[in-house]
Amino acid sequence: MNIFRNLFGQKNQSNQPSDPIFPGESFSISKVTFPDGWGLATFNTKYDKYPNKLFFPWHVLIELEIVEKNDNGHPVETEAEKLAKLEEDILTFLKSKHTVHFLGRVTRNGFRDLLYYIDKPNFIQDEVNTFCDNVMKERPINFGMENDPKWSAVSGFIKEIRHLTSGLLQGWLDIGAMVILSLLCFIWAGQTSLGFCLLTCTFISLISSGSGQDEQ
After folding, report:
1. At 145, phi and psi to the nearest 5?
2. How far apart are CA 216 and CA 212, in angstroms?
3. β-pairing verdict for 37-44 and 100-108
4. Tell me: the pLDDT tens digits for 142-166?
5. Contact 125, 145 (CB under 8 A)
6. What pTM, to 2 d.p., does this model score?
7. What is 41-88 written as a DSSP string?
8. Each residue of 84-98: pLDDT tens digit?
9. CA-CA distance, 201 to 175, in Å (whole number)?
10. Where do the DSSP E strands lie in the chain?
11. What distance in Å separates the CA atoms of residue 165 and residue 34, rounded to the nearest whole number?
């Protein structure tokens, strides 16, 4: 039935999210600059252009303090393991009463932020307090929630990572095209012309790269 709706442009009248509810996983990492240093943002780019945002409008932001950290304020190996385990516990806690979408995490100087979207808040305050109190036996935690139906809180990160990923892919495509063209020239002109072919292809690649920068 959904296929026919899509073919003939009919809208979903059931007020239900379209399939798939969970778009899959494709995590990308980018370096982010903050006033107090640099950080790493890891986001699931499968949520770029996600069509069901309105059905999961509540943004949950959880800030965890990094206790054991290096000079950059990022977790050392043992601390990273503790944070990974705590992240699993948080997801389990949220899933106990919600449909949960995990968008990603940001690791910065002294803190790690976890970003989720859920359908609607079903916890009572005492449940949140009890969970946070247990976490605070090991480290400080801030638990925040706001209505964000357009997912504005994460849109900038996803677009930036998409831009970086597409730029990296284009770079590899340019290199691949140069290698293939070099091999074709080598086969056609013979070994003695290989150096000339490589130089020519490099020149073509530089021109292509420059054109791409001008368009941006």
Report:
1. -150, 135
2. 7
3. antiparallel
4. 999 999 999 999 887 666 666 655 4
5. no
6. 0.70
7. EEEEGGGTT-TTGGGS-EEEEEEEE-SSB-TTS-B-HHHHHHHHHHHH
8. 999 999 999 999 999
9. 10
10. 27-34, 37-44, 58-65, 100-108, 111-118, 141-147
11. 21
